[in-house]
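User: Here's a structure from my thesis project, written as structure tokens. My advisor, Dr. K., wants to see whether a designed sequence matches the one we expressed. Can you design one independently, without my sequence as a hint?
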């Protein structure tokens, strides 16, 4: 009796052993995950168990990233059913008057106005009042800080703070002063934004940090920490703080020789002001690099008029009846006080015929 039991136990154990062993042999090794530069950040987040926000609703008929890109760059796209073209979104602006679709910073966690300008020069981009659409899909809030403080009483502006689709509609009707977008148009813009979301290479992860993320995914542990590590590498909002305008003070002797300031001011003038004002591209007011333009700007600034360089940058203009193009203000994140000083040094020297860049 006892012996028989022993034999059965040994047999059973052996069988289990064989089973386990064959199972281990048959089971292919779980595929290891490695990060690559072109991985979309959202895809990596999903592997880390995060639920995607700002996801595209593809159930709406006719939605495509291509249509979204066309609305943004051309102001119209193919119609929802693909036959013919839509009406222009705005007679005054394209979204690209005020927004780039490229990355704007080397380090997305340091969004200072000067690093943005340096990056714009290095990559030949305009320097504009609106934040880039690149990585917008990864942002959590919109029209932040002083946009909310100053205009948060307007329902759509308040709603836009946490709702990307409302933010798109708000800008189409208010910033671009155009017609409201249909839901398939908004969703197409979302699809385009999704195609220009942040990628792993944009975050400048160190090798050890990459390893940390890979280990978290492969071993399914410390997922939250890995998410935090990634979130540290960029801002999920575009900060926006307004400044008041300064009064005119005459150029100093030092500023008449300040080549560094002058050159920085020139970059702002070329990459920002001329983007809209050269050849009246997006405005009725023409600016160029003639002595007349600089003298005109200086006289408005001296007179502390609405067109003063200090006032126009800090307050912008408002859409007037029948002439609805307007100039958005620059928050300090889009033009710092130092940069504005540099712009004034440039304009005032140029108005006096003192071109420091030519010396
Ligand atoms: C005349 C200038 C101008 C035009 C034209 C314009 N925008 Fe904007 N937009 C702005 C400014 C200024 C902001 C303020 C917030 C920011 O971008 O930092 C903004 C904000 C946004 C935001 C929220 C961004 C954020 O991170 O807070 C979205 C989305 C947006 N615009 C979409 C569009 C779309 C789509 C179009 C074209 C249909 C458009 N905009 C046209 C100036 C403009
Ligand atoms: C996004 C486009 C855009 C950018 C960038 C821009 N402006 Fe404007 N600006 C406008 C529009 C639109 C108006 C409205 C008046 C008009 O259309 O004539 C305007 C108005 C002005 C006016 C008032 C003109 C008047 O009739 O008195 C001045 C001055 C001015 N801008 C200077 C500047 C300077 C300096 C810069 C660079 C720091 C700049 N603008 C950048 C679009 C822009």
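Assistant: Designed independently from the structure alone:
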């Amino acid at each position: 009796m006892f012996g028989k039991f022993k034999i059965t136990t040994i047999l059973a154990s052996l069988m289990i052993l064989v089973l386990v062993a064959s199972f281990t042999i048959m089971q292919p090794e779980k595929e290891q995950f490695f990060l690559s530069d072109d991985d979309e950040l959202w895809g990596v987040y999903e592997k880390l168990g995060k639920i995607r926000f700002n996801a595209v609703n593809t159930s709406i008929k006719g939605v495509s990233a291509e249509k979204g890109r066309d609305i943004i760059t051309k102001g119209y796209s193919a119609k929802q059913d693909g036959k013919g073209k839509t009406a222009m979104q705005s007679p005054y602006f394209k979204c690209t008057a005020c927004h780039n679709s490229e990355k704007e910073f080397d380090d997305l966690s340091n969004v200072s106005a000067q690093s943005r300008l340096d990056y714009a020069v290095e990559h030949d981009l305009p320097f504009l009042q609106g934040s880039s659409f690149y990585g917008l899909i990864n942002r959590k809030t919109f029209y932040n800080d002083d946009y909310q403080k100053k205009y948060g009483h307007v329902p759509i502006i308040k709603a836009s703070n946490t709702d990307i689709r409302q933010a798109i509609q708000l800008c189409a009707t208010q910033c671009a002063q155009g017609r409201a977008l249909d839901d398939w148009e908004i969703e197409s813009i979302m699809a385009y934004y999704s195609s220009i979301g942040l990628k792993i290479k944009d975050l400048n992860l160190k090798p050890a940090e990459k390893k940390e993320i890979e280990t978290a995914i492969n071993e399914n542990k410390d997922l939250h920490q890995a998410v935090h590590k990634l979130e540290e590498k960029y801002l999920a909002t575009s900060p926006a703080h307004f400044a008041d305008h300064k009064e005119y003070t005459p150029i100093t002797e030092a500023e008449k020789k300040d080549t560094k300031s002058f050159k920085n001011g020139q970059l702002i003038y070329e990459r920002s002001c001329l983007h809209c004002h050269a050849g009246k591209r997006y405005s009725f007011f023409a600016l160029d690099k003639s002595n007349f333009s600089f003298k005109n700007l200086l006289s408005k600034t001296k007179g502390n008029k609405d067109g003063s360089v200090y006032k126009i940058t800090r307050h912008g203009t408002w859409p007037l009846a029948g002439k609805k193009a307007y100039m958005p203000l620059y928050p300090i994140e889009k033009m710092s006080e130092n940069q504005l000083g540099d712009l004034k040094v440039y304009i005032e020297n140029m108005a006096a015929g003192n071109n420091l860049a030519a010396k």
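When you compare it with your expressed construct, this may help: The mean pLDDT is 93.
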